[in-house]
Amino acid sequence: MALRDRYTGVLEALEPYLLKTIIIQNNNMDELMRIRKIYNSHAFYSAGTYYLFRCCEESGKLLKQMASRLSDWIYPKLPEDLCFLKKGGGDYLYSVVHEHMYGMDVTEEEAGELMERVKGLFLELKAHRDLDRLLDDAIKHQTDWLYISGHRLTELPERIRELTELRELEIFEQDLYRLPEGLFELSKLECLKILSADLEGIPASIARLKNLKVLSIQCASSDRPAPGYQAKPREEISLNRIPPEIGELEQLEQLTIQYTSIRELPPELEQLKNLQFLDIGMCLIERKPEFLGGMKQLKYVNVSRKSLFEMALDNPPEA
């Protein structure tokens, strides 16, 4: 079934429970604010067509048949951003899938109880400030998205390999220096983002992430900058090479590696036929390699010793 046919089929199946259709035209901010005030909901955040359905056992069964994850509710696969509104106004559950924004109007205690009762429901808790508790719950519920920050890690625990359903992982840990082999056993991983002050390197094992579409590594990043904090000079950053094995990531579409002591790019990058976005900024490369000119599918390329901000200053827009 074509994606468009599936999308239409979902709306047709839910039509018996349709209560109202709200259309907000582009640039009609007054109407958007009026609707948001009426429903007191995060669900209304931009122009578009909003469908309000009656929530009952029958419509609930249909929703369960159509998808198993909130992140599946995204256009064109399905109508975007499934939300549940309270009868008197406000959100019970909301989602903005593109931005990974999800929430439920429950207390910390209620959230914990729900997680105990419903396998697969992974909610952010204050208790997750403890890394072991965070990983316990993430592994128990086999989350497909995880954000790790504020734990003062120097390396990730090897048990990260137990998150076998993980599709997106973002790590913002200033002191993270070494990546464990267990990370590269996450065969379903599609997006990996790492922010750290310094990173030892990218292991050759990166080639095992066959489903990876987005890889982003940014050094000189601090999750708790103290007054007077300064990043290391680029020459002192440990990350000084991109392993040739990265050329084996056949699904890779976006590659960002910023603020490193990298001086050259491996020619194996030319094997990445799906790569569209390449940003190797604030590195020590003197000139863009010629082989990049043959990668016609690239829509954006930045290989520069300068930051995007510095480049913008060098090339101000014309008056």
TrEMBL record:
SUPFAM superfamilies found in the cross-reference section: L domain-like (SSF52058)
UniProt KW keywords: Leucine-rich repeat, Repeat
UniProt-listed InterPro entries: LRR_dom_sf, LRR_domain-containing
Protein name according to UniProt: Leucine-rich repeat domain-containing protein
Transmembrane region(s): none
Superkingdom of source: Bacteria
